[in-house]
UniProtKB/TrEMBL annotation, chains A, B:
UniProt keywords, alphabetically: Thiamine pyrophosphate
PANTHER family with a match to the protein in the record: ACETOLACTATE SYNTHASE LARGE SUBUNIT ILVX-RELATED, THIAMINE PYROPHOSPHATE ENZYMES
Domain spans labelled Thiamine pyrophosphate enzyme TPP-binding: 369-513
Keyword Signal in annotation: no
PROSITE patterns: TPP_ENZYMES (PS00187)
A GO term for molecular function: thiamine pyrophosphate binding
One GO process term, biological-process aspect: small molecule metabolic process
Superkingdom field: Bacteria
Domain Thiamine pyrophosphate enzyme N-terminal TPP-binding, residue spans: 1-106
Entry protein name: Acetolactate synthase large subunit
Family statement: Belongs to the TPP enzyme family.
Native source organism of the sequence: Halioglobus maricola
Entry keyword Glycosyltransferase: no
Amino acid sequence: MNGAESLLSTLTNSGIDVCFTNPGTSEMHFVAALDEVEGMRCVLCLFEGVISGAADGYARMARKPASTLLHLGPGLGNALANVHNAKKGCVPMVNIVGDHATYHLHYDAPLTSDIEGIAGPVSHWVHTSEAPEHIARDAAEAIRQAGSHRIATLMLPADVSWGENPAGAEPAVSIGAPAKVSTERIAEAAIRLRSGKNCMIMMGGGTEVTLERGHKASQIAEACGAQLCTDVFPTRVARGEGTAMIERLPYLAEMAVDRLKDVEELILIGAKSPVSFFAYPDVPSAIAPPSCEHFVLAENEDDIDQALESLIAALDAGETPPRIHELALCDAPRGDLDANTAAMAIAHHLPQDAVIVDEAITSGIAVAPMTATARRHDWLNQTGGSIGWGLSAAVGAAIACPQRKVVCLEGDGSAMYTIQALWTMAREELDVTVVIFNNRKYSILELEFARTGARGGVPGPKAASMLDIGKPNMDFVAMATGMGVKATRASTAEEFSAQFAGAMKENGPRLIDAQVPSLSG
Amino acid sequence: MNGAESLLSTLTNSGIDVCFTNPGTSEMHFVAALDEVEGMRCVLCLFEGVISGAADGYARMARKPASTLLHLGPGLGNALANVHNAKKGCVPMVNIVGDHATYHLHYDAPLTSDIEGIAGPVSHWVHTSEAPEHIARDAAEAIRQAGSHRIATLMLPADVSWGENPAGAEPAVSIGAPAKVSTERIAEAAIRLRSGKNCMIMMGGGTEVTLERGHKASQIAEACGAQLCTDVFPTRVARGEGTAMIERLPYLAEMAVDRLKDVEELILIGAKSPVSFFAYPDVPSAIAPPSCEHFVLAENEDDIDQALESLIAALDAGETPPRIHELALCDAPRGDLDANTAAMAIAHHLPQDAVIVDEAITSGIAVAPMTATARRHDWLNQTGGSIGWGLSAAVGAAIACPQRKVVCLEGDGSAMYTIQALWTMAREELDVTVVIFNNRKYSILELEFARTGARGGVPGPKAASMLDIGKPNMDFVAMATGMGVKATRASTAEEFSAQFAGAMKENGPRLIDAQVPSLSG
């Protein structure tokens, strides 16, 4: 087999059987190999930002990495922002980046660039395969390096792809088991939780907050009188009926600082010590008070379930019941459509086992509290702060979980970053309902402008025009239709509720252009 | 004034008075400064790929750099592909990349990344400003480093932006004059051109082929019996009535190799020795035969006009007339709409002083030959091979030249990379007519698949599906309308011709969704 075929077989042998791509000339042998090697589902995206966002959403829901196939340095550059988001969310990804043939590089053709240089800042592991007989081994190493939480980026020169590899593919790579948390660490956590101090257990980061983990953490918190929360943007959280009551740290640093001001001891599970998303004049970067002690019970790559179980045993908390949400659905809303009534409709109609992909920024603020007691669902957050993630992540989540309804909550501004994702939803007939909160503003930036105190917090006319995306207004119904996705516009709560309910009952991609006011009206 | 204000003043003092941006929280003080400092036109784009593409198109037509304002590492990542294209085209750009406050970096907030690392591969100069009192000096250095052909990327931490800078702004930066080409080099060129060998003068690269330069090069070629051509993708070329007849090297390496097989001496002006765009099994990377001598008359940064004038003097070619295109318009086409009839209509109706931005790939192949004798126009090529440049470059060209009609020729696949550019065309009421050659294929990749010889040159069904963007078909009329751009669909040559003629007579953004067959039908 040639290098491309041995690469492809090595990926599928390890269960990496989805590849998001937009290939170019240097990747044609990889593309050709799709018809020679069984078992790889290759998903075409019209822009590489969609590719990396989809790989992120896929990995979170499939609990294994997807591969991406990217076209040289610029293709990786286009993917970079969503690789960054995945890296910050500790989501694994195996990027394959095509390059010119090794002997062609020194001619400095138009698409030649320092691909390793571009890959470095967003990858944990970077490697260029140098010969066809190395590519299977290199791919296996990429899979091992990606593991369950990391970004591995492997460059595939065209001649490595088309050259013969007599050695063939590598067998399945075994990913190391997560590290056990030591008895000493468990004992120390127990002492701290029983110290009588004001303790808070903080979960999240790249550690999935599953139903079971939430229950165990709640048992621990209840047994010790500790508080329990997640950080602002945990990668994945099980929510709704039957899940534990877990607070979420507020986004606004001012509010988060106030929330933590009396906390004396933070017990961290996956989450890192919370910091302000941005710096602001006269606002501290660290959220917890300087006197607060931090204790890391477990990092993302540790055995979280074992840590929780051991701690429950150490605290003798096995009989303590967790605090659980019971089902309590919002009423279907009436009247004006706004962030609150839209949230009510979503909470009311959300079906069992839905996956919510949240990049709705300011307009989505009411959805999380209102869905806390909705039917059981998983919630994926934007982990790296680079907008343009949601639509793409929804593509990946839907491919990972074809039996579950994916609901993608998007701001109008963030939707426009990777709007091309809609086409892949249509092409792959994915069961995604996209809600665009169309408020014709970068509403978050109006808030942030005030928070930075620039110009006394009040934008002048030129600054205000940079925050305003309503001239011209964007018509997402037209754009979605243009990419093959059925779409409707909702201007009242009743319209939105009916359209959302309808979308929950149907299968396939659907977009609702929800006309909502911005924070500033 | 604060750092942001001194930065802004330093830019405008040096005539950098356009900034393409999509700012975020870390850039709010820069945004605020727009209302405090006179003279900066700030153009909002919905995605950073549009920003850098627009800065490229602007600089080519304005003959001075634009600035960009980008949001941390991911914002720069989104811009990266079109910065790459500009770098390969030797187009100057001054990128300002906001970052977290210096003291906030070590907290590793979600948007923290190695921005210098991302910037390095696509910049000639990278620097992080470390204090408010440095920012004006650093900005002046960025302008100097960008000069007329380079990429300068300056990181602006938020506290450098909001801190006080008592020193204020820097005065206008003087860009060094281009280097004179030595008498010895001119004499050597004259000897080579008069050697009796088969000589070819090749212009292009980042060197603009102006009307005057074309005439002079043609005089030289005529006086010496040399051939005259440009490389495949020169950055900017004056074409049409009254311009010199200058051949263009073919894109296909096989054809280019054949074209140059008898050339014994290449005289290079701006252009580099031609190389194959990609590597293919059994196709040479270098286009010129191994025996061909190369002589660099002038590099991009040299004084091209002086070099040509001196060479004319050395050859005593001042009286030799250049070979000039006379006006000869194609007939308006009738019948089926395809690459040829669309090109005829464009050539027939193109108004005087139009600017053609070409990213039409396979479908645009007939436009260049047919417009060779059209009314005078400038032609901008895609210089770095990363698709998603055209619509964005058209935005910048239209802002640089508000009195000229910009015609953007786009493939459907490449259009989707930065489709968000349409919104900025509508918002700024730019006089751009976009022609989408909608053939529902990555047609170039069908050709490239065959050229690479993968799977015997014949894609299997899975490979074929990766080259097919017609499931679902994209409706560019709907998408453009959704972003506020008037749009029509053309399915016959008569419809296209009438719509294009109408667009040429009107002012403002307009899109034509031209339904054409792909190369493979």
